[in-house]
Amino acid sequence: MRVAVLGGGYVGLVTATCLAETGNDVVCADLDEAKVERLRANALPIYEPGLDALVRENQAQGRLRFTTDLAAAVEHGKVVIIAVGTPHEQGGAADLSQVLAAARTIGDHLNEAKVIVTKSTVPVGTSEQVRAEIRSRTDHLFFMASNPEFLKQGGAVDDFMKPDRVVVGVDCVEAREAMEELYAPYLRTGNPLLVMDIASAELTKYAANAMLATRISFMNQIAELCERVGADVELVRRGIATDRRIGPAFLFAGPGYGGSCFPKDVKALVSSARVAGMDPVLFEAVEAANEHQKTVLLRKVASALGRLDGLTVGVWGLAFKAGTDDMRESPAIPLIEGLLAEGALVVAHDPHAGAQARQRFGSRVSLVDDPYCAVRGAHALVVVTEWLQYRTPDFERIHGLMARPLVVDGRNLWDPARMRRAGFEYQGIGRGA
Ligand code: NAD
Question: 28 partner at 20 to 30 Å CA-CA among 218, 247, 325, 366?
Fold first, then answer.
């Protein structure tokens, strides 16, 4: 099938590449000339396991092309997918300016009947706005579909190639059949294509992210209670995860959720609920609990060390989670800004987020390529991101390098008893017992 993808960011790039991989003829268009130039040279703007090889292979085979010519992309696709950004506005509502600009481009360049797909995460009613925007600019036939994306960064290619489910919102047979054809290769093992109305599809994405964010905030509050009453959140987690009604996923206590999705999507859900005349107490509490949690690492370091002025703090991990170089809304940011404001020297390591960190912090933070360099002379080590390479480090070496063996393990990677036996002052999240 001829497919156009508007937006070559995280979702657009993964979508375009994975659609090309199953034989579609895909043009991916982005306004950002530098990004497109780099993509043409197989230089990816993001770190995502497995993606670079697929981009290279599909470009070489001619199934995947990158362009800044949005008009040509729209004319190319029988299916045109909108995958541009939807950041949040000042008040928390989703900013739809990129989506509506894409809709205007589509309306101006529609040259035959097409299916127009909103893949960006958008509030209920946006696909209707997109439809109206296009309709006002063309007499050609077109059919709307909502197709929210559920991929997770760090596992995006796998999630796209083998989705748990594909959600499609449609109101006509043409859009339904096009989406069934497009996704058939990815659902051969029997995972479902869930067809529903457009409003329900749009809301499903927010419901999914809000549910996952709720589980995280819930466990973070249980963790705080564990610390106060002398219980261990890891044991409590296992105790509830084995209940089939609850299940094991997304129950890890940590430094708060970040990334480009959960924070903005929970805010947008709050905003949508308010506009709809409802009082979204639960969603607001999830968000408030997360804001509180994002200060937990700084609070722990500060209360253990007292004055931070002139002390050195090593930070392991800067990305908002493992498997990505994305630092958007990472809990590392409030931690590091807080440490710097208190006069501490910060030496940080991350296997992939160095470039993003350099952009954000400039020379205010020392970035090192070797995690052990981050602990040399340090008065504390703080673990922010759960990278695999941090799981079993040489503790004896770390202990020998540190000026004071204080470890704040924001991901509960290490065993508290073993750490204390090894001579560390160890603090995890919720490890009260
Ligand atoms: P992003 O900011 O990484 O990428 C957006 C891209 O769109 C940018 O490269 C930008 O230059 C381009 N763009 C902006 N306006 C354009 C236009 N008019 N025409 C063509 N290109 C244009 O965003 P992202 O992380 O890929 O997210 C895209 C959407 O998908 C958002 O709504 C997001 O909420 C949603 N989503 C993201 C994820 C994720 O893990 N990042 C997962 C699921 C859904």
Answer: 325
Cα-Cα-Cα-Cα dihedral sign, residues 356, 360, 366, 372: negative
Mutate to test the pocket of ligand 1, among 5, 11, 66 (most ligand atoms within 8 A of CB): 11
Residue nearest to ligand 1 atom 22, measured at CA:
7
pLDDT number for residue 432: 86
Q: What is the pLDDT of residues 182-231, one digit of tens each?
A: 999 999 999 999 999 999 999 999 999 999 999 999 999 999 999 999 99
Distances, alpha carbon 102 to alpha carbons 35, 39, 94, 264, in Å: 18, 20, 15, 21
Judging by DSSP bridges, how do beta strands 366-367 and 345-349 pair with one another? parallel
Domains of the chain: 2-196 (3.40.50.720), 206-292 (1.10.1040.10), 294-427 (3.40.50.720)
Neighbours of 430 (CB within 10 A): 27
Q: Which of 305, 332, 328 is nearest to 317 (CA)?
A: 332
* Beta pairing partners, 383: 316, 409
| Catalytic (active site) residue 261 | yes
Structure tokens of 347? 């030496």
Q: If residue 82 lies in a helix (H) or strand (E), which one and from where to where?
A: strand 79-82
Determine which one of 18, 28, 226, 261 is catalytic: 261
Given its phi and psi angles, is residue 258 left (phi above 0), alpha (psi -120 to 50 degrees) or beta? beta
Distance CA 341, CA 148 (A): 40
User: Dihedral sign, CA of 131, 132, 135, 137?
Assistant: negative
Q: Does 75 score more than 90 pLDDT?
A: yes
273-310: per-residue pLDDT in tens? 999 999 999 999 999 999 999 999 999 999 999 999 99
Structural contact between residues 386 and 421, judged by C-beta atoms closer than 8 angstroms? no
Reported as type and span, the H/E element at residue 167 is: strand 166-170
Residue with tokens 């937990």, as numbered in its chain: 296
- The residue ranges of DSSP E strands in 87-141, in sequence order, are 114-118
- pTM to 2 decimal places: 0.95
The tokens for 301 are 């370091």
Choose among 379, 362, 402: nearest CA to 308: 379
Distance between CA 257 and CA 153 in Å, rounded? 13
Q: 214 to each of 164, 171, 251, 273, 284, how far by Cα in Å?
A: 20, 31, 10, 16, 10
